[in-house]
Amino acid sequence: MGGRSGSQSVTGAGPQPGALGGIRVIELAHVMAGPVCGRMLADMGADVVKVEPPDAGDPTRAFAPPEAGGSAAAFVMMNRNKRGAVVDLKTEGGRGVARRMLERCDVVIENFRKGVMEEFALGYESLREANPGLVYCQITGFGRTGPLAGQRGFDLIAQGMTGLLSVTGEGPGRPPVKCGPPLTDITAGILGAMGVVAALYARQSTGKGQRVDTSLYEAGLIQTFWQSAVALATGESPGPLGSAHPLAAPYEALPTADGWITAGGWNQVNWLRLLEVLGLGELANDPRFATNAARMANLEELRTILSRRLRSATAESWLRRLEEANVPAGPVSSMIDALRHPQTLAREMVVSVPQGGESVETLGAPVKMSETPPRVERGAPEHGEHTCEVLEEYGFGGDEIAELRREGAVRG
Which residue out of 43, 155, 185, 213 is catalytically annotated? Predict the structure, then answer.
């Protein structure tokens, strides 16, 4: 697919294994959402070149400790499987380098504030004539349209503005609680990657690329399916329920004698099975809990009764009995326990890559494919590690590269 349907051919590394082998991606992105998008495409076989500014580079290079292989662990996690180049877009020479690359690649990813790429003369409209097959992915805080289009975006702010913080707390009157991982950043990156792949597919029949536009704001809203369904149907905003489900009960984390477990009696069959395991069969005919609607209306009473019973035995004991009865249940794992779980390892969700002369662990590819499997083989690039290599692939000669280095347009 690379170098076809309107984009110019580029010599160099050649097609890589994977569904996106041969697709050339320039990642002009930093920190989280854009790099997530690039990482997803790289895992699928695309040749992703991360272009960083001089001096400190991507801010995540400074997110240390901890370190992995001599680099910030956060940077390694976000940028494995990519090559790296340093280009100073604040210089005329650097902008010229970037323009040549963007005129010859298949995909560009950027997550600057709206208008920044236009200031660099690298906006979509100025590139599409030279590269009609270009897929131009823009991930911003609030999207390219609307009254907030010009505002910068941050995960915490997006979680608050999209209602996520209003439904993730412990209950009414309690402080709002942010989802631990940067949910909108990660989701926006995944949405961007989905849009890129769809645009590449469309390009095969039309020969034309297109702009892909998504945001942290939309990423937050798209995570609220159940809560939005309630709000749109009733005109009322649902509040925080701790770990409970907004539409079905019981379906939440509950305490045992030595820790917490999750259990789901969310439909009538599982509800009755749960009662049998807990020895609470009398609740089956209790009008407070006879139906899901009744259980939701009396959720606090239900939680109190279930918790009192579950505290009589250990988490391991309850989980064994619940599994035997085919009731959905599981432990509340620490991150280390989750990462070392046999299921995690069986699914190759923790893999090793070379980094700084060491072998370090990173998360694996979350999508498995039978014919073109994703690969995680390369560590994150050192700052400017592949600058000269990449520039040669995009047609820059040795003397030209040397001059660009002398004037500070590129480094490596």
Answer: 185
